[in-house]
Write a structure and sequence with these properties.
Blueprint (H helix, E strand, L loop, with lengths): L1 H41 L12 E5 L2 E10 L2 E12 L4 E9 L4 E8 L10 H4 L34 H18 L13 H7 L22
Antiparallel strand pairs: 1-2, 2-3, 3-4, 4-5
């Protein structure tokens, strides 16, 4: 019996490893296409390859991916991946900023929020919708829900998700602005606000931006 169980286990492990090897590349290609499409959606108009030129910026000890976008060699903005803990778990978002730090658009990459409630974050904060954050600059003032004294309408019955989403956007801005600290509760610190205004007009990036080419953990 023991030999049979051992044999079955060994065969099962081998089959799983084989299937994993077969599907690894297709899954990686699908994820790459999803990311590429999302970057194109949140920062349209670039003619470079933002993903190939990915940088990593550390914020509060965590590295976030920054995808710089240029057109004819001129910096026009960047897409930034960031995450925060929502009601059901991690909520990951890709936020597009223009050269001035204003939000162009966003894409909710993944979440485990409640269907019909927190899941509305995929569209709730987009242009024309009730919680519209497009055109806002987190460097001027961290984005917060109206219940907390902010200007953004929270998703109905999903304040926790809304706060998490805005926290992720604020951290994304901190990464975009090249800052290594941000308040996990309210977003960018006053330091972010002051230094974000110190912009290099030639590149669109803040003078104190210090990005590395290391692989992002987020």
């Amino acid at each position: 019996m023991l030999l049979v169980l051992t044999g079955v286990t060994a065969i099962s492990v081998a089959l799983l490893a084989y299937v994993n090897e077969l599907t690894k590349e297709p899954i990686a290609q699908a994820n790459a296409k999803t990311l590429s499409d999302a970057v194109s959606a949140v920062v349209p108009g670039f003619d470079n390859d933002p993903i190939a030129e990915k940088k990593a910026q550390e914020v509060n000890g965590v590295e976030y991916s920054v995808y710089p976008a240029t057109k004819e060699g001129k910096f026009i903005g960047a897409a930034v991946e960031a995450a925060a803990m929502g009601f059901g778990g991690e909520l990951k978002v890709l936020v597009g900023f223009d050269a001035e730090g204003k939000i162009i658009d966003y894409s909710l990459l993944s979440h485990v929020e409640t269907p019909g409630l927190g899941s509305k974050a995929a569209d709730w904060f987009k242009k024309g919708n009730k919680g519209d954050i497009t055109g806002m600059n987190p460097g001027e003032a961290p984005l917060t829900v109206s219940k907390d004294g902010g200007k953004v309408d929270a998703i109905t019955a999903s304040t926790i998700t809304s706060r998490a989403f805005l926290n992720a956007v604020n951290v994304a801005y901190a990464a975009y602005a090249g800052q290594n600290t941000a308040d996990g509760a309210t977003g960018a610190t006053q330091k972010n606000v002051e230094e974000a205004a110190d912009t290099n007009t030639a590149t669109g990036a803040t003078i104190k931006v210090e990005l590395t080419d290391s692989v992002s953990a987020k």
